[in-house]
Amino acid sequence: MIGIDTNIIVRLLTRDDPEQFDAAVRLVKASGPDRPLFVNPIVIAETIWVLERVYKTDRAMARRQVAGLLDTVEIKVPETMQTGSWSEWLQSPHPDFSDVVIAGLNSENGCETTMTFDRKAAQSVPGMELLA
């Protein structure tokens, strides 16, 4: 298994650098179910952030693009993210995807709640609660 960084996923989705895109495609083609590319939650959250903020991709579109890429035999995500929760996280209307991942991973690891000072997250992310 080979881990990949955010910039590999961004090149695959944006094709903004032809040389790096070709290299990323070769990497994907060289992988498969027996030797997948590992994508951790930080890379996923960072990819969505880059697509939304740097490339000005619509939130829903950015999350659909990432979900589509992660739903391939060449890509492996951590076991904790292979539940139905993952698709729920990608569909969350909350603007800051990292908040959704934080609350989701905490919940999946037995946390009854995730305390935050972020009022918006406390109101719109399941499992987050405002610490006042």
Secondary-structure element string? EHHEHHEHHEHE
Largest sheet: 3 strands, parallel
Structural class: mainly alpha
**Distance between the ends:** 44 Å
Q: Order of strands in the sheet with the most strands?
A: 1-2-3
Shape: globular
Q: In terms of topology, how is this protein built?
A:
Blueprint: E1 2-3, H1 6-14, H2 18-30, E2 37-38, H3 41-53, H4 59-70, E3 75-76, H5 85-91, H6 97-108, E4 114-116, H7 119-124, E5 128-130
Parallel strand pairs: 1-2, 2-3, 4-5
Helix pairs in contact: 1-2, 1-3, 3-4, 5-6
Brief overview:
55% of the residues lie in helices and 9% in strands. It has 132 residues and is mostly helical.
Describe the overall structure.
Helix content is 55%, strand content 9%. It has seven helices and five strands. 26% of the residues are buried. The mean pLDDT is 85.
Q: Notable features of this structure?
A:
mainly alpha, 55% helix, 7 helices, 5 strands, two-stranded parallel ribbon, 3-stranded parallel sheet, 132 residues
